[in-house]
């Protein structure tokens, strides 16, 4: 039975906290980037509640003042293209939800939220809605606390905290909690390796390239595993002594 307290799903909160903790350093780093960016401080802060997507928010902040508006929009579009896959995967679950959740829910559909809710395919529409909203609120709250704190303590953070390696810090928790089967492990290893090898590419393309490589590798591994499970086992011939 799902334990709830009013509208909040306690199980969802318990599931979200381990993934929210690794996101804190990323939020801090983005807060530092906002302070050092040519973007006005108030505008940089506003990207946290309005954009609510770490990699895209980091691209907006770091490209401000050095790239055109259209270049920034294109970069954000490329980085967030993976959300199309998330939406397609969750479309059956959202089809039976009220209109307000169909309109507002995608605003908090980040990587960690998708990883958690995708593990509950058999939940009823009401249970899914409570779980989704609870998880989304946890990450939205944590993120909008971490970013302003990073802005406040930015001057005292060591320069050794490189922005290029902030996303992997966050995705460590995602991988640890999300990997349950061999195909998922293959996807995580391939995606993470490719992302690290391409981390120097502009506009955070390493995330899209790594995610694409992980999806392809995971699908291939899923096919191999499924084919192996469907093949009949060879008959065991008992040899008489």
Account of the protein in words:
With 241 residues, this protein is an all-alpha fold. Helices cover 70% and strands 2% of the residues. It contains eleven helices and two strands; from the N terminus they run ββααααααααααα. The chain has helices at 10-36, 41-51, 54-63, 69-79, 82-94, 99-104, 111-117, 125-153, 166-178, 182-197, 205-230; strands at residues 4-5, 8-9. A two-stranded antiparallel ribbon has the order 1-2. A hairpin with a 2-residue loop joins strand 1 (4-5) and strand 2 (8-9). Helix 1 (10-36) runs antiparallel to helix 9. The radius of gyration is 21 Å and the shape is globular. Mean pLDDT is 76; it is low at 1-5 and 233-241.
Q: TL;DR?
A:
By secondary structure, the protein is mainly α. The chain has eleven helices and two strands.
- Low-pLDDT segments: 1-5, 233-241
How many angstroms separate the termini? 55 Å
Rg value: 21 Å
Strands, count = 2
Oligomer: single chain
Highlighted features:
241 residues, mainly alpha, two-stranded antiparallel ribbon, 70% helix, 2% strand, globular, disordered N terminus, disordered C terminus
